[in-house]
């Protein structure tokens, strides 16, 4: 019973951390820029054009260079992607998303490292992974030097 009460308290604290992250300026910026991206018709048009072109690209990839429209589709796909990537709203969302992900990575790492230096914390960010002898995971069967 004691373990259950302790678990409930830990979950409540985790929820408080989540609420703090949601209320942070970083999360607010992300939501603000995401809303701007979703509500801008020009940005939505660029995204839709890229998605449509990407579907053509995937069809062409099945046949490779033998597809009659290979060069044109490849060129058009890169052009649409560049137009989408250069859109101010898309760039702002990506920047805000990266900042939010960094915050989440840092919190995850702090929690994991407070338990043990050897605990695996999947961050996707090599900056946070470098402190562990198993930064790449233990899929190597102990090849990373851990005691897998």
Describe this structure as you would to a colleague:
It contains 6 helices and no strands. By secondary structure, the protein is an all-alpha fold. Helix 2 runs antiparallel to helix 5 and helix 3 packs antiparallel against helix 4.
Shape: elongated
Give the helix tally.
6
- Secondary-structure-based class equals mainly alpha
Low-pLDDT ranges: 131-148
> Biggest β-sheet, characterized?
none
Order of helices and strands: HHHHHH
Q: Indicate the proportion of strand residues.
A: under 5%
Average pLDDT score:
85
Number of strands: 0
Query: How much helix, percentage-wise, in residues?
Result: over 70%
In short:
The protein has 148 residues and is an all-alpha fold. The chain is built from six helices and no strands.
Secondary structure elements and their pairing?
Layout: H1 2-23, H2 25-39, H3 41-63, H4 70-85, H5 88-115, H6 126-129
Helix pairs in contact: 2-5, 3-4
What attributes characterize this protein structure?
disordered C terminus; elongated; single chain
